[in-house]
Write a structure and sequence with these properties.
Helix 2 packs across helix 3, helix 4 runs antiparallel to helix 5 and helix 4 packs across helix 8. This protein starts with 13 loop residues before the first helix and ends in an 11-residue tail after the last helix. It is α/β, with parallel strands linked by helices. Helices cover 32% and strands 23% of the residues.
């Protein structure tokens, strides 16, 4: 497979120029911190619990596209496929802090864990209280007894939505953390890769797949999945994904869920809707009710071809925060 063409200027300046464009696309609703790759809402209310999200660039619109009303209050942005540095996280947290503490919410990756934890130490020296919730929704990354080792993938979006709503309504950091942890405990995702994405600075592919191969469970940076196999019809692939998802929590008859089908970068809406058709057949058969569906592009790996499927088991509290109106460049829903 030939390396893809990209419409860029200097490959070493893609994050800087991307953030400049992202700020302009938000029409004044976010600003970039001086000298730091971080975005902050311009309309942050006083005296609220702050929600800081973040991670590597190259997965747009997550994370920096999810700063807005009832979403993230700010985002710390790393280079492509790399964690933001501790100083970026530190400055972003100070910028969003409104006197009631800051919740850190991000995907469970070693670099992010290390750098966000370093920022926590710096903030605590300044007297700013911080709590950390890591998203661990990827069922392919580790067995159920080791959920703490799992990666965060597209479940991040529902977690940001719920934590953002909770941070808008609840008065204490303890309560916002409680809701976020409940959401993380009830979300599961799995992906399938059909073709690789690439790294803008080098032009190199993130992994290699034969023309007739797919990989079930591949991670957002090309991490190994659970099986590499020959291409198959959509229904057969969907059956494999759903068998893995439903057995993991496990989801059971009578559950009510939110369903997200996420485009990893180069997959068409037509393909995702065909998968959605099969997912709904399976959920109907299993007696699982879909409260809401989201089908679109939220966590990408440049032009990787493939999808991920996320199920979030709901109760009345999670449903309330999920259904609150949201406004951000990457995800808005009334």
């Amino acid at each position: 497979m030939a390396n893809p063409k990209k419409i860029l200027n200097d490959p070493k300046k893609v994050v800087t120029e991307m953030l400049e464009g992202l700020v302009l696309a938000n029409d004044g609703r976010v600003r970039k911190l001086d000298k730091h790759a971080a975005l902050v809402r311009t309309d942050l209310p006083e005296s609220k619990v702050a929600l800081l999200i973040g991670g590597g660039s190259g997965h747009e619109p997550v994370f920096h596209g999810f700063v807005g009303k009832n979403m993230g209050d700010g985002a710390a942005c790393g280079q492509v496929f790399a964690a933001p540095s501790p100083d970026i996280i530190y400055e972003a947290a100070k910028a969003v802090h409104r006197g009631k503490g800051v919740l850190f919410l991000y995907g469970n990756y070693a670099g992010d864990n290390m750098n966000f934890d370093m920022a926590v130490e710096l903030l605590e020296e300044d007297g700013i209280e911080v709590r950390t919730v890591r998203v661990t929704d990827d069922v392919a990354a580790a067995p159920p007894e080791r959920t703490h080792d799992r990666r965060g993938i597209a479940g991040d979006i529902y977690m940001i939505k719920i934590a953002g709503g909770a941070a808008s309504e609840l008065d204490t950091l303890d309560e916002v953390e409680r809701v976020a942890r409940k959401a993380v405990a009830n979300v599961r995702s799995i992906g399938v890769a059909v073709a690789a994405g690439s790294i803008p600075e080098t032009g190199k592919l993130t992994f290699e797949l034969a023309e007739d191969e797919i990989e079930i469970g591949m991670g957002a940076h090309g991490e190994a999945g659970v099986s590499r196999q020959k291409m198959a019809p959509a229904d057969e692939i969907t059956d494999q994904l759903m068998a893995k998802l439903l057995s993991d929590l496990p989801f059971k008859r009578g559950d009510e869920v939110a369903l997200m089908i996420n485009n990893l970068g180069a997959t068409t809406m037509m393909e995702m809707l065909i998968v959605n058709r099969r997912i709904r057949q399976i959920l109907d058969r299993e007696g699982i009710k879909v409260h809401r569906s989201d089908v679109g592009t939220w966590l990408t790996v440049q032009e990787m071809a493939g999808i991920s499927v996320t199920l979030l088991r709901l109760d009345d509290e999670l449903k309330h925060y999920l259904d609150m109106p949201a406004e951000s460049l990457g995800y808005s829903r009334m």
